[in-house]
Amino acid sequence: MAQDVPVRTIGSARLEDVPEIPDAVRRTAAAYATARAAILADWFDDGTLLIQTRFGAVEQLHRVNMPGGARTQLTFASEPVAVGYATKGQHIAFIRDSGGDELFQVYVQGLTGEPVALTANQTRNLLTAVSPDRRLIGWSSTAKGSSSYSVVIADPSAPDNKRTVYTDKGSAYPSAFSPDNRLLAVTRQISSVEQALVIVDLQTGTARALAASVGDTIRSPVFLPGNRKLIAISNVGSDVARLVEIDVATGVQRVLTPNARWDVEAAEVSSDGRLVAFAVNEDGYSRLHLLDLSSGRERTAPQLPTGVIGGLRFSPDGTRLALGLSTPKSAGDVWVADIRNGRLVRWTNSELGLINPSTLSEPQLVRYPSFDGRQIPAFVYRPANATGRKLPVVIDIHGGPEGQVRPGFNPNVQYITSQTGAVVIQPNVRGSSGYGKLYMTLDNGVKREDSVRDIGALIDWIGKQPDLDSNRIVVRGGSYGGYMVLASLTHYSDRLTGGMEAFGISDFLSFLENTGAYRRDLRRPEYGDERVPEVREVLRRISPLNNVDKITKPLLVMQGANDPRVPQRESDQIVAALRQRGIPAWYLLFADEGHGFRKEPNEALRRAVETMFLRRVFLE
């Protein structure tokens, strides 16, 4: 029977059927929102760094002059900055949206003063390239409701002087300028597992595709001096992504890491073209490498703390390498390695805020067998003060689906383990990136529910662990992970205690019809093309909304009203369907968020509501 539920408002949030939150819970949840990271953005010409960090409610751009130096704030807005670059003459270029609507606009400004918008409202713009001399920037632009893309370049010092240099009916964005600014490498994204390159001559206006195999990826290109060769990351002819050198004229690739067993995840080339810094994703952990292109030999790379690298940038003179690094127990900071002597210096020391570092958990990497014998990797976080009693479990499932859980700093996981006493397990089910292109395709199309069966296998594994309570398991996830929560509840409600999902897909057909036009074609290779009758029937059959009668346990749903990827309708309809059947469905809706919650007060409230839900389902 349909439920009448209590409704109230806190800030920008509407809370339905959510109980009153004690002040102590609110304070602790807010404490875990005080941790902040320093994210590497770029170098300035003078050797200072541009970073992204938060001193108020949202992340802004800051300048750091020296190791341990003060962070001088450069942008001031109520909305977070998404991407930033340093440009010629001590200027910056960046993008931000409004309320999480993902209609990003490109801005330029000096170190002081008001930003100047280069783009028009009702367009979505992604700033993805700056020229080596920092005189040009490049972005992709698509009109709201359109799936056609334009690649635009501009001189930030003359913002009215911008021009469109390439157009495509599908996703395309600028990746790299050549050192002389004559050529531009453009990435065409056909799907999550297929990317190709187009070389645009900025003088003649001609565009030429580099040959690539169907289903393969070439990404992160960087031109070498002379414009004849590119360094890029490619999985052509390989299950894993390798570092390659590409002949610009012929497209022929020469593999630089032939013995690679894991994906190369990032690469950067020094300004003189002699040295490549690249990071390898080894079972989720980042490993830094330095390759001398003239000799083909690796140099000794600085030894980093165990964690996840987020970005690599050589200094303008090529003598230093900046990188972002996050570890399970540190929120994320910028480090700089001196290439000449190998010395590694931490430039920022980000704060954990009010989090007690003694409560932080280091994950254990495990593998468990699934239904077909495949071993599924997972990170297990146990409370720091765990005793001999059996502990409840939260299975935290990543989005994507081609994402990957990695052992960087995760305040949500650390909060759950320390404040609820639960063990958090983060599986990388089939379909995840980081384990080769075959693994990433194992859930495509009609194989979608094979990844859900990986969660069933994890529930089996939990039942065999002496310290885990198989009678108290909650599934949690966002976006595609939200779908996985709903699907897990339709298959395993009798073995679960409840579910917590954010902006999850409840009906594949309504999702594909209503998701942003700019991404619909990219999703079809992953989920299946709903215009094909046979595929449409499979998507209809497996959609959680059409199996809602199988969900018998309570659900917490969280959503941003401005989400263009998984629109609010997906959450509204699953909540209504559950309440119609008398199943408890808590609903937290933010008026000023989109696909993800990026504002500190909202994050604190979301965390507090999750706490109340876990207390309710674990204790009942």
Largest sheet: 10 strands, mixed
Strand order of the largest sheet: 1-2-38-37-36-35-33-34-32-31
Q: What oligomeric assembly is this protein in?
A: single chain
CATH architecture of the domain at 7-33 and 354-619, by name, is 3-Layer(aba) Sandwich
Q: Which fold does the CATH topology of the domain at 7-33 and 354-619 refer to?
A: Rossmann fold
Share of helix, binned:
10-25%
Instruction: Determine the mean pLDDT.
Output: 93
Radius of gyration: 24 Å
Find the count of extended strands (DSSP E, 2+ residues). Answer: 38
Describe it:
With 620 residues, the chain is an alpha+beta fold. The model has no long low-confidence stretch (mean pLDDT 93). It has a domain at 7-33 and 354-619: 3-Layer(aba) Sandwich (Rossmann fold). It has ten helices and 38 strands. It is globular, with a radius of gyration of 24 Å. Helices cover 18% and strands 37% of the residues.
For this entry, give a set of tags.
620 residues, alpha+beta, Rossmann fold, 4-stranded antiparallel sheet, 10 helices, globular
Indicate the topology.
Layout: E1 7-10, E2 13-16, H1 23-31, E3 39-43, E4 49-54, E5 59-64, E6 71-73, E7 81-87, E8 91-96, E9 105-110, E10 116-117, E11 123-130, E12 137-143, E13 149-154, E14 162-168, E15 171-177, E16 183-191, E17 194-201, E18 207-209, E19 218-223, E20 229-234, E21 242-247, E22 253-255, E23 263-269, E24 275-282, E25 285-292, E26 297-299, E27 308-314, E28 320-327, E29 330-338, E30 344-346, E31 364-369, E32 375-381, E33 391-397, H2 411-420, E34 423-427, H3 437-440, H4 448-463, E35 468-478, H5 480-492, E36 498-502, H6 508-514, H7 517-527, H8 533-542, E37 555-560, H9 568-580, E38 585-590, H10 600-619
Parallel strand pairs: 33-34, 33-35, 35-36, 36-37, 37-38
Antiparallel strand pairs: 1-2, 2-38, 3-4, 4-5, 5-6, 7-8, 8-9, 9-10, 11-12, 12-13, 13-14, 15-16, 16-17, 17-18, 19-20, 20-21, 21-22, 23-24, 24-25, 25-26, 27-28, 28-29, 29-30, 31-32, 32-34
Helix pairs in contact: 1-10, 2-10, 4-5, 6-7
